[in-house]
Each structure stands twice: as C-alpha cells, then as structure tokens.
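Issue 218. Parser rejects a valid record. Input:
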Amino acid sequence: MLNNQHLNTFNTLVECKSFTLAAKELNLTQPAVTQHIQKLERELERLLVVRQGKSIEMTPEGEQLYGYIQKVMKEYRLFRKSWDELPSNDGRVDAA
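Output the parser choked on:
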C-alpha cells in the first residue's frame, strides 16, 4: 500500500514545482521531501519527476500518479461534504 504522506508530498511537489517550495509548504526539510519522492519511486519502480534546474517536470508515470491523487482527493472531498451533512448524534451507539 502506498504511503499517504509520500503521496501528499508528491502532490505538493507537483503543485509547487520545486523541492524547496514543497518542503516549506509541508514544513519539512528539502532532504525529507527528496526521500519521500525516492521511496515512492522505489515502491512504484518508476521515475516520477525529473529535476530541471531548480524546477521539476513530471514523467508520464508521474502525470498518471498525479491524476490518480487528484481523483482520490476529489472523492474524499465529496465524502466529507456528504458526511458533514449527516445529522449529528449524541455519540451513543444503539445496542443490537
């Protein structure tokens, strides 16, 4: 199973287009961001990004992963919206 923190790091890296800016956004060190991406790449056995000076460019595999992450995030937002609209209870669980 893919590590959610590594997926979040990848998503932030793509959006920031920079390891340094992603690290600032995530309140991590730049080496930690690098490690997350490397671990994700090793687990998936694919190169996800290519450094272009101080910027990055996604590989086709990186683009596919980014699309997947966007779908998952959209589904999560839909779930939270529907969940938050449920009537609240008092925390008791009915005995069967």
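Fixed in the parser; the record now loads. The chain has a mean pLDDT of 93.
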